[in-house]
């Protein structure tokens, strides 16, 4: 038995602590557990061959993801679009990270590139599908997250604008995964060209209503300033390098040209540091959260809605999406019961009406029959009476006439008797 | 708490790689922690114990605040639960705490059903979470988790052993919630009695197969302290919100004529240990255990009850969609069957009624025929009579005519005779 206090929407009281309790230690507990669990992250890189994707990955993670033993996709011979993943375990400061890099060799390389995004979409969906199945099992074990958390899209540094393929790809993927567009090989653009290029790209992105990954507003004002700075630099122009060169006595990663060294980690040369800080040091967790709370949930609700609202127009059934499919079925069952009741009542009504009609007709026929019978009876009776009358008259006539005849006969007899008498008397010879 | 926050084995397919420098992902735990702090934490604690055993006081002491407390009577007809939610903040950490107290526990004469309201409450919170998880459009990250994370079971300080009510209740709850038994009002037991009491309680729990919450030993940082604490279970606690001056400080204590029991003195009671274990060290683990063990168990049972399986009869794995689709098919078939049955029934009734009416029609028809025949008979009889009359009339006419003729003849004969007579007379 529950008192009202539990079910009523509570106006939650804010209480002050009079002393040490200790739950301020909760974050540490969370920290410990997180470190113990380890982390995983899946990063997808998409772009035409030769834009420096593999090099950038190596630069970002300061490792040789692709080496002689594990050659990168650019060294592969086949050039059809595939999706390939490489999984590595890296450790830093006691923190283990299982990093999965998903590459798309052959993207945009064919002559006809229509649908070259399909393998990418299929890959992302299949990972969501795996996760959905794993989390929907009856017996769930700890679910490892292999969903794609971030997609770095490499834009060729033409300096003009986005290509149709770029626009098409981003439009198709922006509600499936966090898309972060990058200007690749930015060391071919001067800062001014780069600025114009960025402006143009952002304009086109807005025109086509492409939703690229948005940096969330932070609680801290300082962090917010940082976030805004990053936003202004979008899309980030990056340069990658596998080679370490010496500049002013320092060893840095860079690209050596006759005219100088383009340093990867120099903020004035390119936005690589911004990308690395954002992607790895500050927003990695948020990318995972957005994937989990937004993109995955989108996928899941579409998938489950298709199951329950088989063929029914989704827009009409928006309200039903707040239930689980089973609750949905329960509701439909109740509706059906009501519908049947109504149908039954209607059919009953029609039935009764028809029966009444028929019965009425019968009654009328019966009445008609009675009436006619009655009429005929009366008719007959009348005829009878008439006949009786006729007979009576006739009988009377007959009786009278017979009486008359008898009188006449008597007279005749009397007359003949007198004649006989007279004859006898000789009066008449 | 997403399913990804579950303890996981490191991926076997990942090859280890060494880094040439500082990448920076060691900030990941901090990113996670920052997010958690931003969202705020949530903790739900259930206190089970007899009326007056000190549940509310202990809560007040533990959280150093004043929760709304209701004085309960001993005459509650049934066990009830009262839940209250509060927002607390300590430094930059916000905690939404829900305290659930039993009301009237142990007061009834017949205590057989005493545990049921508690079990129902816990199940209801699980159910609520499960429903949210199963929705098509769900928002788990915003969901206010009301599942019970810890259950403090207050044992009466009899000094002897557990009551049967205690064993029965704890047995029913040990697979649903993390049970932390505490000996209440420990200031009524002496140290030696306490030691024996604790041993007795633990052995009774073990022999009855009651699984209480063990502080986790898998994290090296806290394994040592947790092991020690596990050995002090159950904690003997004293609660007090009143302050007494001891030395030159004001401490929380209970003043007796024979001395002052200081709540935070580890020699006097295990309050500090409880606070340390429950809040400082293992709060997160309690939450995790609730989610990954107790909730999963509930969910598994519930889904199996509803007919969900992971594999179909041929032992092939079945996805959630397949199960849903199968259920939906079944469901549609059932609805169709019901409709057909109803129609069938109507068709039947219509047939029957039609037969009835046809029968009535036929009856009417035969009556009609009968009357017709009757009428025809009567008409025939009438015709017969008419004919008879006509015959009589015609024969009578004939007679009359004949008689008249005769008369006429005789008259003329007589007349002639008379004439003759007359004539002859004259001669």
From TrEMBL, chain A:
| InterPro entries listed in its UniProt record | G_SEPTIN_dom, P-loop_NTPase, Septin, Septin7
Organism, as annotated? Xyrichtys novacula
**What family does the entry list?**
Belongs to the TRAFAC class TrmE-Era-EngA-EngB-Septin-like GTPase superfamily. Septin GTPase family.
Quote the Gene3D superfamilies the UniProt record gives: P-loop containing nucleotide triphosphate hydrolases
Protein's cellular compartments? Chromosome, Centromere, Kinetochore; Cleavage furrow; Cytoplasm, Cytoskeleton, Cilium axoneme; Cytoplasm, Cytoskeleton, Spindle
Keyword list, A-Z: Cell cycle, Cell division, Cell projection, Centromere, Chromosome, Cilium, Coiled coil, Cytoplasm, Cytoskeleton, GTP-binding, Kinetochore, Mitosis, Nucleotide-binding
The protein's predominant localisation is: nucleus
GO cellular component annotations of the record: axoneme; cleavage furrow; kinetochore; midbody; septin complex; spindle
Q: Per its UniProt record, what PROSITE patterns does this chain match? A: G_SEPTIN (PS51719)
What biological-process terms (Gene Ontology) are attached? cell division
Domain Septin-type G residues, every copy: 37-306
Regions annotated as coiled coil: 326-411
Highest taxon of source: Eukaryota
Q: What is the lineage of its organism?
A: Eukaryota, Metazoa, Chordata, Craniata, Vertebrata
Gene Ontology MF terms: GTP binding
For this entry, the protein name equals Septin
Automatic annotation (TrEMBL), chain B:
Q: Could you state a single Gene Ontology molecular function term? A: GTP binding
A Pfam match is: Septin
Sequence ranges of Basic and acidic residues compositional bias: 415-427
Keyword list, A-Z = Coiled coil, GTP-binding, Nucleotide-binding
Extract the coiled-coil ranges from the record. Answer: 343-391
Q: Which SUPFAM superfamilies match?
A: P-loop containing nucleoside triphosphate hydrolases (SSF52540)
Q: Which Gene3D superfamilies match?
A: P-loop containing nucleotide triphosphate hydrolases
Listed InterPro entries:
G_SEPTIN_dom, P-loop_NTPase, Septin
Q: Which residues form the Septin-type G domain?
A: 39-305
List every stretch annotated Disordered.
407-427
Record's family? Answer: Belongs to the TRAFAC class TrmE-Era-EngA-EngB-Septin-like GTPase superfamily. Septin GTPase family.
What is the protein named?
Answer: Septin
Organism, as annotated: Xyrichtys novacula
Lineage from the top down? Eukaryota, Metazoa, Chordata, Craniata, Vertebrata
